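hey so u asked for the seq, here:
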Amino acid sequence: MEPRRRQRGFARRPRLRTVGGVLASFSLIGLLGACAGGATAATGNGDHVTIKIGDSFSATHPIGRSGTKVFLETLQKQGPEAGLEIEYFASGQLGKQRDMPALLRTGVAQIAAVSPAYVGTQLPAANVGDLPGFTEDSCVGATAMRTIMSEGTTLFEKELRPNDIRPLWVAYIPAYEVLGSDFSVSSPKDVEGTILRSTGGAADRVVDELGAAGVSMPIGDLYEAVSRGTVQGTLASPISITPYKLEEVMNFSTLGARLGSFTVTYSTSQKLWEALDDDQRAVLAKAADRAQGAACKEINTSLETSRQAMRDAGVKFVPVDSATRPQWEAVAAPVREKWVRDLEASGHPAQQVLAEFEAALKEAQK
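ran it, structure tokens below
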């Protein structure tokens, strides 16, 4: 589908349309201009430029119904004067999560939801926020990740800029737990020898440290896999459990194990960002600020809602208390240490990135 162009001299009112029965495109006002095959610079001379935004979230996902919705609505209201138009493609219509950096590079999309866990070979240090042992507050985590992904930081200058990626706003899904269908999880030893679905990236390292066998599969396939007994559980946030009815096949879960998080960055191309004028960048920055605030609040609320729905379905939560906390930290600490060692050995500044993230977390917690 080619971007719809506006005729110079007048602006049509932004409108919402659907493609294939799915919310697919807002004829909104946006930023940056490009079409597949080559980028068109935004000159700020009155031309209307259309860009495509692609992600993998539905309108009912906590990120989709909060951050993404606010992002698009803000652009719709404040973008027209900047001469910018956006088309939005939800639910993976432009590509899968692992394809998002390529969509930005090729110009198929100009804003894409890039998740470091799915592109570990391209953005290994950006996976720092998904390591275990950190915050369970989505707003704290998102603020810290956005801080260390800004211009001038080690992560931006050494990894994001070379890959032509500029994060605009961050959605941070925290509170990864171990969930079991046929085994309780009172301690890490209970997980040894089990078969767990993993999300990739840092989560794979946690599964290995727990002594479990990791299986990579879309979460949408997990219900059937657990029902058949081919997978015994998963490493995930409660937020990801209830949308797929997994509380029906999961019987046990840790509570407060802090085994990792999942980071999503709505990103654009650095080259295209630099082609914008000041007014266009200001519109985008305001939309990004509002989107991140809405997303983290919704995620925090959804976390508690999902936990209650799991309890109502009969899932037994095993809280991590002062007596068992050292056991789970004994899993998290080696994962972080090995992550640093492995990335440093391959030339990535992992130690500095981790230090900057920990400092940003402390600042965000204030």
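The first helix runs from residue 64 to 78. The domain at 177-261+313-365 is CATH 3.40.190.170 (D-Maltodextrin-Binding Protein; domain 2).
lmk if thats what u needed
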